[in-house]
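agent: user wants the structure for Calcium-transporting ATPase from Olea europaea subsp. europaea. delegating to structure tool.
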Amino acid sequence: MEKYLRENFDVDHKRPSEEALKRWRSAVWLVKNPRRRFRMVADLAKRAKVERKRQKIQEKIRIALYVQKAALHFIDAAASRAADKHQISEDVRQAGFSIDPDDLASIVRSHDLKRLESHSGLEELARKLSVSLEKGVCPSEISIRQRIYGLNQFVEKPSRPFFMFVWDTLQDLTLIILMICAVISIGVGIPTEGWPKGIYDGLGIILCIFLVVLVTAISDYKQSLQFRDLDKEKRNILVHVTRNRNRQRVSIYDLVVGDIVHLSIGDQVPADGLFISGHSLSIDESSLSGESEAVNIEKRRPFLLSGTKVQDGSGKMLVTSVGMRTEWGRLMVTLSEGGNDETPLQVKLNGVATIIGKIGLAFAVLTFLVLTARFLATKQGGITKWTMDDALSLLNLFAIAVTILVVAVPEGLPLAVTLSLAFAMKKLMSDRALVRHLSACETMGSASCICTDKTGTLTTNHMVVTQIWICGEAKTVESNRLGNALKSSIPEKVTRALIHSIFLNTNSEVVEGQDGKTEIFGSPTERAMLEFGLLFQKDFDAQKQEFKTIKVEPFNSVKKKMSVLVALPGGGLRAFVKGASEVILGMCDKIVGKDGESVSLSDEQRKNIANVIDGFACKALRTLSLAFKDMENMSDDSIPDNNFTLVAVVGIEDPVRPGVKAAVQTCLAAGITVRMVTGDNINTAKAIAKECGILTDDGIAMEGKDFRDRSTQEMKEIIPKLQVMARSLPSDKHKLVTMLRKELKEVVAVTGDGTNDAPALHEADIGLAMGIAGTEVAKESADVVIMDDNFKTIVNVAKWGRSVYINIQKFVQFQLTVNVVALVTNFVSACISGSAPLTAVQLLWVNMIMDTLGALALATEPPHDGLMKRPPVGRNAHFITRVMWRNIIGQSLYQLAALGILSFEGKRLLKLNGVDSTATLNTLIFNTFVFCQVFNEINSRDMEKINVFRGMFSSWIFVVIMVSTVAFQIVIVEFLGTIADTVPLSLELWGVSILIGAASLLVAVVLKCIPIMTSNNAENVKHHDGYEPLPTGPDLA
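agent: tool returned. relaying tokens verbatim.
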């Protein structure tokens, strides 16, 4: 089976090939209900059509951006003026605006500078929109702006109503055949058996079908609602805006025309708009136009398009159009079609369903042929004479055969994966993890390595300056009490240089919040620096306004520094730089002396400063250096990289998050290696890694430059013991991930927050983007967004991933056992006695227990801590394991033996006499069969441990389904006998049924004590870093 599945039903969990997707689709055979079974499977033909449509739209946008823009230069000015008679509708005028929504939208969409100039430029356009470029939109106007200019939402495909799920469920071919049989049965039964007896058989089938359809449709409908909510959350981006002078974060859905939006590296432009101000703003428009070359935004080219990404720099924009008035809105409508890729487990279980379906079809045909042959052999009047009763009997035999096919083809197997994933995604969302791609839930359960950032993931990201080296002395910063003491201990000139280095060289803002308190918007490092600077000088804006900023080079993970060039009030230029301490120190040839004057930096001083930096780093502090350089006026405004004067070295404390050490230990116990990959100083990284339990005595910590200089063979030798990589570039992280995946065959999860982390997130098996510190570019490249940036949440995702995988295995074990017993029981009974002990109605009820209800019970069980005490599943591990086969075969043999004894010796053993003895025995067999499945469902909760009741009552879905199944079974047997072909049973016989069913618990204990030989795939669960598979079977009881 595994070989067949691997050849035909094996797809990559990330970016599967078109060939693999087509191969498994062509291999699927005997699908009862394609509409339901393939509801969560991508439509390849539709996807190809959507891709062609998207490319056409991109081509149109490209023409609009490049060709039309060029053509505007040749338009006659008079014609342009004639075309620019701006029409304003009455609604717009009454709302207090002076520009029509379509006219406003066309300015940016067509990059029409002439039209913008015809409105007298940006300031006049803002006046027509009744908005101040300084204050922003007044909150009381938002509803009016949404009514006039529209909502920032795209036209979405309406969610499917409940009756559509009912209709999909009714498309099942076998159910349709059974409904036809039921109608014929009623039509034939009434004239032969009279009213109402003649309708019972047909009515029973119809009522069972109704129940199956209702339960299945409700389950599918609830899944669809969960996925819809998650999809909406995935698209919800928080945007920085200025409203009523206050800087705040709002949902992208709440953005309105007239909003002032703040953009920084990695952000997605949330709407069409016009550039107000900024520095080095560079936009990637490839998502719209397909062009990979970045576009520089400036006053002469102020147009910003929704859906594009900020590649570099920062800036502010005025929103001019939202929602469906943007090109991105139109493009999003097409992108929502075509569906998502199916997950590897869904594909694999389609393969399992195909194999079992073929076997089931063979059994159904054989059963029908045997029953028909026995019927014809015993029929009165021979083959030539037929009565209505004979026709009705033959129809019932056909209905039984079809019902066996209903039970035999496990249509619910692939759908159980969807159910389990939907449940896991919903729970993870409440645990602060947003799953963007379904397959990530599965794959995370197999993760054998996590490459994690340090800042914000292992640490709290609440940074405070606690140490500073200035004027040749290291000083401790104690809370907020140091300002005056430090200010008095150093010359005023040095203090001024320090304040300027902090306040002028930043992309953060100090604003007054809605509650009147001072708020700082920016990265945690920037906030820590500004909080420190505010101890000396409270008026941040005054300092900023005193100097004119000429050029800004924002911080990025490659340069590891941020630079700014400002014009001094008295003339001349000054460049400020801050960043990684050793990088900045290497750029300096002077330092600020104790008297405030710049003095040459000697080799001994350089060595002392390097020791100070190492000292700070060994205390687990992030270190930053600040420097400046005075220059004459320069024509090219370039910021140099040398001859700077060092002002200070600061040490920033970022404490380790509570619970991280325990979470790392949980990973190690689960066979998951944790590696820290950070841009910080090597000593800071080692100190934090030791505190977290990542770096061990025999582990390797090295810098990115040392790693990237190694050969491939050297890397393969180093990586198994590599635990910390410091001062790494994004390319180093990408290389590490690639080596782990391709050379060492690891399943790798990697965290990232910056724009430059996107390639590593894309390459990893599971990309984990940070929700707080992460940019939109990083989130878009990721599979899971960690909303609280916490390493503990990553471990939780791994636990849920393992839970999904093990839950599906439990369900498969349970369903295969029911399949085997139902098929063999009916077939053997048909061959020996000429009748099937389970009727069509009874088999339909069994099908619902093992399909929809079984999936709900087993596929939605929450994870337990024991899941993180076993090694991860290997890349090529068998899905149906030897342990599962042991349990399936053992339980099937027990149930077949018990039902066989009841079938052939039940009357004698139980002393059943009288006219109802056969009906009583058949009811007892049916009742026993159901209770065997109820207790086997409990057995399936754990495939290896003996104590299957642990945590059962914490899973309320499981308990409710068990109670409901038993309660409905009592109703069927005691009160629905005319429909279900049952008779009421005595308490003794109820006891017999329950006792035989409960005995399967003891059988399970015996089975779990049978040792299982080690699989040939043992290497898949033994990792290069020495983790051994943990004990299984009774040892884990």
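agent: one observation worth passing along. Residues 71-84, 1015-1037 have pLDDT under 50 and may be disordered.
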